[in-house]
Amino acid sequence: MFGIDLVEILNFFKQAGLAVAGAASFWGLILFIRSKKRQGEERESLFQVSLKMFIPLAIGIVTAVAAWGALSFQPQIVSAHAGIVIHPTIEAAAKGFTISSYLFIWLIVLSLITFYFYKYKKEILFKNLNWFYGILFISILVLISLPVWTGQWGNDQAFFIGHNFHSIFTLGTVLLLDFIFFTIKDSEKLQRVIYPFLPNLSKVIWVGLGFDFLSAWAIFDRANFSEARFFFAQTLIAVLIINGALLSGPINKKLISLVKQGGVKALSKRWNVVAGLCGIVSAVSWIAITFVDFIRGLTLEYPTLMIIYLAAIALIFAGYYVIEVKKMEEQTPAASV
Amino acid sequence: MCMEKIHINLSTSVLILAGFLILVGLIPFAGGSLYLWITAKVLYGIGVVLFLFDK
Question: For testing the chain A interface, which of B3, B51, B52, B53 should be mutated: the one with the most A CBs within 10 Å?
Answer without folding.
Answer: B51
